[in-house]
Write a structure and sequence with these properties.
The complex is a heterodimer of chains A (356) and B (183). With 356 residues, chain A is of the alpha+beta class. Chain A is built from 12 helices and 10 strands. In chain A, strands 2-3-4-5-1-8-10-9 form an 8-stranded antiparallel β-sheet. Chain A has a two-stranded antiparallel ribbon with strand order 6-7. In chain B, strand 1 and strand 2 (22-28) form a beta hairpin. The longest helix of chain B has 25 residues, at 158-182. Classes of the chains: A alpha+beta (356), B mainly alpha (183). The interface between A and B is large, with 54 and 44 residues.
C-alpha cells in the first residue's frame, strides 16, 4: 500500500480540517454514557441481554444517518483482527476497554468518523462525538441532538433524582464527559503546567497527559476533562471547561511569546534539531518521536518551518503508534523492528512534503 | 499512622484527592495498597474505580463507623439487587452497578458515595430525556415559570407577570391532560 493511501485510511476525515484555535486545541469531544432500562449492564450481564442490545442497535441504526453523520456502520469487535482493533483504539474511535474480550462488543461509526457509538462497553452505549479545534459548545449541542435521535428508539435508564443511570457511580447524572485535547509545548517546557494543574483540579476538572505512561505527557499533549457528572447541568459543565481551556490557550500563547523574546536562537535550535532527527533517524522510539513531533509542530506554529502542514503532529502521533505501524508493515513487529519502521515512516512522510 | 483498611500495618501509601476544594485522604499499607491497585505503575490500571472501591471500604472504619457495626453492617451486606442479583458487597468490591434497579436497591447507601465522587452533589440537574423523563420536563418548566413569576411580582411588573401566570395555567393543563391519559 502506498503511504498516501495508507494515511488516507489512517486519518479520520474530520481531523484534516482546522477548527477554532487549532494551533493549540487539537480536538473537542463529548461522550455520553447511556444504558437500556430493560437490560442488566455489561458489568454483570453475560450472553443474551448483551446480544439483544447489540442486535437492537444493528437492526435500528446500521445504514442509518443523522444529519451530516451519514452511513453509520456497525463494526463487531469479534470480526476484527487484533491489529485492526488496536488501530481503532489508536484512532480514538473505541476505548482500550472495548477491545479487551468484551462480549458482544461493537461500535457504530459514521463515514466521517466524527461519531462513534460504542456498544456493550462498561455501559450499553457510549456515544462519542468529535470536532476539530476548540468547539465544545457545538459538540455538546450536536451530541445532545444525536442522543435525542437515539432516544426515539431506545428506552434509556433514567431516574428523576439520579439522572442517567450508569454502571459506574463516577458517570451517573449527565453521563457526560467533555474533553479537549491540547498541545501545550511552551507551558510544558517552562514547567508552568505543573503549577496550573492543582488549580484546575480544584474546579472539578482533570488534566492528564495522553499517549504517555503515568503522569508524563508524551508529545506535550494534554487532555482536559470534567470529573463531576452529577449536580450540574451539561451546559454548566461545558462552560466551566470552556473557560479553563480559554485561559490555558492564553497562557500557552503568552509562554510561546516569552520563549520567542527571551531565547529565540535556542528555540530555533531545538526545533531544527528535532526536525533533523525526524528527517534522518533510522531508529526512533515512540517517545522520542512524540517529543520531536511536538517541537516540529511548535516550529510550524511559530513560522520557523514553512511548507509543512500543521496537521502533521496529529497525523504522525497516530501513525507511529504500534497498531498502525504493524498494519502498515503488513505483519506483526517486535518493539525493535517497530522503532526502525517508525523512523522509515516518518522520513517517508516528510519527504512527501518535499515532493509536493 | 495505621493502614485504614487492615488496621494492622503502618500506612505507607498516602493518597489525597481534591475536588472542588473538598479533600479526601486514603492511607494504606503496602499490601493493602497493592490489593486495591494503587501500586500499579501503568496509568490505565490506576483507575478511579480502585480509588472508589477504597472509599467504599472506608465506611465503617474510624471511631464513628464502629458504633454502627453489628446489626446494621450485616443488613447492609446481605442487601441484594432484585434486578440483577448483585449484592452490596459485590458492588463495593467492584465499584460498579449491575443494572438500573441497583440504584433503588442501594439507594439508602448511595448519598455518601455520590457526595465523595461528585463533590457533594447527589441529585441530577441536567438533561431530561424526552420519553424516559415522562412529564419531568414539563414539571421543571412549570417550576421555572413560577420562579420567574415571583421575580416579576417582586419587581412589580404586573403586566408581564399576568402573561407568565397564563403560561403556567396552560402548562398545568397540559400536565393534567397527560395524567388523565394515563388513568
Amino acid at each position: 500500500m502506498s503511504l498516501e493511501k495508507f494515511m488516507n485510511e489512517a486519518i479520520s476525515p474530520w481531523m484534516r480540517h482546522d477548527g477554532p484555535d487549532s494551533d493549540i486545541v487539537l480536538s473537542s469531544r463529548i461522550r455520553l454514557a447511556r444504558n437500556f432500562s430493560s437490560q442488566p449492564f455489561p458489568t454483570v450481564a453475560r450472553g443474551e441481554p448483551l446480544e439483544e442490545v447489540l442486535s437492537f442497535m444493528d437492526e435500528h441504526f446500521t445504514d442509518s444517518s443523522f444529519r451530516e453523520y451519514e452511513g453509520l456502520q456497525l463494526v463487531k469487535m469479534d470480526d476484527l483482527q487484533p491489529i485492526e482493533k488496536r488501530v481503532l483504539v489508536e484512532k480514538h474511535l473505541v476505548s482500550p476497554h472495548l477491545i479487551e474480550d468484551r462480549e458482544n462488543a461493537a461500535t457504530i461509526i459514521s463515514e466521517n468518523e466524527q461519531v462513534s457509538i460504542m456498544v456493550n462497553e462498561e455501559d450499553h452505549l457510549r456515544i462519542q462525538l468529535y470536532f476539530p479545534g476548540f468547539q465544545l459548545d457545538k459538540a455538546l449541542e450536536q451530541a445532545s441532538q444525536l442522543d435525542d435521535w437515539l432516544e426515539e428508539k431506545i428506552d434509556y435508564a433514567f431516574d428523576e433524582e439520579r439522572g442517567y443511570l450508569t454502571a459506574c457511580p463516577t458517570n451517573v447524572g449527565t453521563g457526560m464527559r467533555a474533553s479537549v485535547m491540547m498541545h501545550l509545548p511552551a507551558l510544558a517546557l517552562t514547567k508552568q503546567i505543573n503549577r496550573m494543574t492543582p488549580a484546575i483540579n480544584q474546579l472539578g476538572l482533570v488534566v492528564r497527559g495522553i499517549y504517555g505512561e503515568g503522569s508524563e505527557a508524551v508529545g506535550n499533549l494534554f487532555q482536559i476533562s470534567n470529573q463531576i457528572t452529577l449536580g450540574k447541568s451539561e451546559e454548566d459543565i461545558v462552560e466551566d471547561l470552556h473557560s479553563v481551556v480559554q485561559q490555558l490557550i492564553e497562557q500557552e500563547r503568552k509562554a510561546r511569546q516569552t520563549l520567542m523574546n527571551r531565547s529565540p536562537v535556542q528555540l530555533e535550535d531545538r526545533i531544527y534539531r528535532s526536525y533533523g532527527t525526524l528527517r534522518h533517524s533510522r531508529v526512533i522510539t515512540s517517545k522520542e518521536a512524540a517529543g520531536c513531533l511536538s517541537d516540529l509542530r511548535l516550529g510550524i506554529d511559530l513560522d520557523f518551518l514553512k511548507d509543512i502542514p500543521r496537521t502533521i503532529l496529529n497525523e504522525l502521533m497516530v501513525l507511529t503508534q504500534p497498531g498502525f505501524l504493524q498494519q502498515y508493515a503488513g505483519e506483526s513487529l517486535d518493539p525493535e523492528d517497530r522503532d526502525i519502521k517508525r523512523a522509515t515512516l516518518i522520513r517517508e512522510r516528510i519527504n512527501l512534503e518535499d515532493d509536493n | 499512622m495505621q493502614c485504614q483498611r487492615c488496621e494492622k500495618y503502618p500506612a505507607t501509601v498516602h493518597l489525597t484527592q481534591v475536588i472542588n476544594g473538598e479533600k479526601n485522604e486514603v492511607h494504606l499499607c503496602d499490601s493493602c495498597a497493592k490489593e486495591q491497585g494503587y501500586m500499579n505503575q501503568e496509568e490505565e490500571k490506576f483507575s478511579l474505580n480502585d480509588l472508589l472501591s477504597g472509599l467504599f471500604h472506608m465506611e465503617g472504619s474510624g471511631s464513628a463507623g464502629k458504633l454502627f457495626q453489628g446489626n446494621k453492617q450485616q443488613q447492609k451486606e446481605s442487601l441484594q439487587c432484585s434486578g440483577c442479583g448483585l449484592t452490596y458487597q459485590e458492588f463495593t468490591k467492584a465499584g460498579k452497578f449491575g443494572c438500573a434497579t441497583c440504584y433503588e436497591t442501594f439507594n439508602e447507601r448511595l448519598d455518601p458515595i455520590l457526595k465523595r465522587v461528585h463533590s457533594g452533589n447527589t441529585t441530577h440537574h441536567g438533561k431530561v430525556p424526552k420519553r424516559a423523563g415522562g412529564d419531568l420536563n414539563l414539571r421543571r418548566d412549570i417550576e421555572k415559570h413560577r420562579e420567574k413569576l415571583h421575580q416579576l411580582i417582586n419587581q412589580e411588573e404586573f403586566e408581564e407577570a399576568a402573561k407568565v401566570r397564563d403560561e403556567i395555567r396552560t402548562l398545568e393543563e397540559e400536565l393534567n391532560q397527560d395524567k388523565g391519559g394515563d388513568s
